[in-house]
Amino acid sequence: MPADRTPEWTENDHANSSKRLGFAEIETLVRSFVYLGVSKVRLTGGEPLLRRGLPDLIAQLAAIDGIEDLALTTNGSLLARHANALADAGLHRLTVSLDTLDTQRFAQLSGGRGRLDDVLAGIAAAEQAGFTAIKINCVVQRGINDADVLPLLEHFRGSAHVVRFIEYMDVGTCNRWQRDQVVPSAQLRDRIHQRWPLRALQPNYRGEVASRYAYADGGGEVGFVSSVSEPFCGDCHRARLGADGQLYTCLFAATGTPLREYINHGEVALQQRIVETWVGRGDRYSELRGNAPEAGRRIEMFMVGG
Ligand SMILES: C[S@@+](CC[C@H](N)C(=O)[O-])C[C@H]1O[C@@H](n2cnc3c(N)ncnc32)[C@H](O)[C@@H]1O
Description:
Elements: H1 11-16, H2 23-35, E1 40-43, H3 54-62, E2 69-74, H4 79-89, E3 93-97, H5 103-109, H6 116-128, E4 135-140, H7 149-156, E5 162-167, H8 185-195, E6 198-200, E7 211-215, E8 221-225, E9 240-241, E10 246-248, E11 257-258, H9 260-263, H10 267-279, H11 285-288, H12 301-304
Parallel strand pairs: 1-2, 2-3, 3-4, 4-5, 5-8
Antiparallel strand pairs: 6-7, 7-8, 9-10, 10-11
Helix pairs in contact: 2-3, 2-10, 3-4, 4-6
The structure holds S-adenosylmethionine.
């Protein structure tokens, strides 16, 4: 994944910005989603740890009655510096993106902007801060990092952390995706099973994006997100809110619904707009891939997270 280029903003900049939501606006929006039944919230990006004052936002969101799961996805580069503050603010769970343990490949995949040691130090700091069962997201690209899958598992086996292999997707318009770059989860699973036998686990809930497997020897859990080889549009219940207040009903959406202007119209109007957008959705990009009307025009991934 290309490294994020999100600039560092102060909260004041955000509040005054015509583009980005301030923390109070985000809280109002999240309260409306929670009122409508949302109980899981994930902060992603872009790189969320670049946002100054993020622990304050986390504390605001953690205090909302009805949020049962508050998670954050990060590239891990700044995690060592922020892990304690994230835990103190009330963050429940962490996902760290880590595509390889090979220093050179890491540098290549992060466009030379990240350091593997920083990410590993971030994971260690997060453990110290009390985060358990951290999810480690690895996007697998054929011929790039597929040889790094077993070493990654070897490293985290026996810990409570869960490595999840994600099929490389044609997100945004910049990654020059080709289908033959995708390593289907079934192939990976077979390869892993030959080294460490696996057994399938039941999903934790309907619509869980990763299929779960346990090492037969009790070494922990592995997940597979098979969005290309086994699309799960029918079960997708993710609403994505861009930092500018656009609501996207699909990771591959071409356009969003602007919600920011509704914040000042009161909660009822805001909630109505969210409901109208949500019930009107018909997205099934991953099922149609290539034949989808939006095939050539998609929101960039840094706008909507993973
Ligand atoms: C877009 S990143 C944003 C959050 C944060 N900056 C990070 O790097 O984790 C969120 C997740 O998207 C996933 N991702 C990025 N590019 C992808 C691609 N082309 N296909 C599938 N997943 C991808 C990665 O697993 C990453 O964990």
